[in-house]
What does this fold into?
Amino acid sequence: MGWGLVPSIFLPRMRSRELHLVWPSWYFSGISRAQAQQMLLSPANGPGAFLIRPSESSRGHYSLSVRAQASVRHYRICTAANGLYLQKGRLFPSLEELLAYYKANWKLIHNPLLQPCVPQGAAGRGPECPPPPQQPLLQDGWERPRSEFALRRKLGEGYFGEVWEGLWLDSTPVAVKVIKSAYVKLADLTKEIQTLKSLRHERLIRLHAVCSAGEPVYIVTELMRKGNLQAFLGSPEGRALGLSLLLGFACHVAEGMSYLEERRIVHRDLAARNVLVGDDLGCKVADFGLARLLKEDIYSPSSGSKIPVKWTAPEAANYRVYSQKSDVWSFGVLLYEVFTYGQCPYEGLSNHETLQQVTWGYRLPRPASCPAEVYALMLECWRSSPEERPAFAALQETLDAARRRLHPALT
Ligand code: AMP
It folds into this structure.
C-alpha cells in the first residue's frame, strides 16, 4: 500500500479522481498491538479513542483497538471474499462502513467508538505510513460527545428544560440538564459555561461535562439523589429532621454562596428549589449564573409568573438591579423555607401583593422552629438598603457559630 493512495476498501464510495488522498485518520498501518495500546492510553487520548490497524497475527485481516477506561480492547476484523466482518453475519463492503455501523451500534462491542486515536509517543506510524491525521477541532476536556450519555429517568423540569438522571459511558451516574434553546440565549450559554467550568467548591454542584456541539445543549453535573432542598424538606424524611440538620443546610448554602461572593458571581435565583441534597444530607448550590441567560421576555417582571418575585430583592424585582446583596435577600427567604420545612413564603399573597407589601416594609414572620438569632439574621438579609445587608462570609460565620452554640457536639 503506497503513500497517499487510499485503497477502495477504505472509501469505496469515492469517485476514482478523489482517491488520491491521505489515509483515514483512524487507520494506522505500521504499528503493533503493543504500540496501539501505548498510543491509546497516552494522555492525548480518552475513553472511546479507536484505531484500525493490520492484524499482527493474521495476515490480511485487521484489528480494531478501542480504549475503554484504563484499558484497551482489540477486536479482529476478518476479510472475506465478499467483504469484512467483526461479528459473523454482519458483513460490510469497507472498513469505513463497518466503523460507521459500530459507531452507531457500539453496544454490540460494549465500547463506544468516539474519536480516532491521536498519534503520540514512541509509536509512530512507520515508514510506510501516511502523515498523521489532522487534530480534532480544538476542544477542551469538558466537551464530550452526546453519545457518551444515556438518559435514563426524568428527574424534573426547570426554566431551562428537562433534567434527567443518566449514565456516562455506561458507568458513572450523572444528572443531565437538556437546555431548551427556545428559552435560553444560546450564544450567551457558551460564555456562561466557561464561568461554570472555572468554579469548583464542595458546596457548589460540580460540572462534569458539556455537550454543546449542536442542540439541545447538555449540561452534565454530579447527581444529587435526594433532589431539590424544597421538595426534600417537605418529604417525610425531611419533615423528621431536627434543628441541627436544618442549621447544617443553612451553613452549607452560606458556604457555597460565600465562594460565589468571593468571585463576584451573582446567582439571581437562589431558593431552596435551586439547592440540591445528596445522600449524605450535604447541600450544594445549583444553577448559579444560569438565571441571567433566560430570555428577557421570560424573566422580566412584566412577564409575571416566571420571575421568582417572592425570593427577589425589591430593587431587583422593580428595577432589575441584581447584585450579591440581592442574593443575600434571597438567602433570607431560603432560610425561611428551611425552617418551615419547605413552605411557600408569603402564602396567600400574589407576587404583586408580595412586592407591594415588602416595599411598604412587611417582613415574613419567624417560623416556629427557627431560633431567634437565626431570625435576626433573616431580618438583616431583608434590609431595604442593599448595602446594609450582611455579606455571605459574615452570614456563614454567624450560622456556623449558632450551630456550634446550639449543638456543642458539632465542633
Ligand atoms: P432545574 O432545572 O435545575 O430547576 O432542575 C429541575 C429539577 O431537577 C430540580 O428541582 C431537581 O429536582 C432536579 N435536579 C436538577 N439537577 C439535579 C441534580 N444534579 N441531581 C438530582 N436532581 C436534579
Confidence is low (pLDDT under 50) at residues 1-22, 122-139, 294-305.
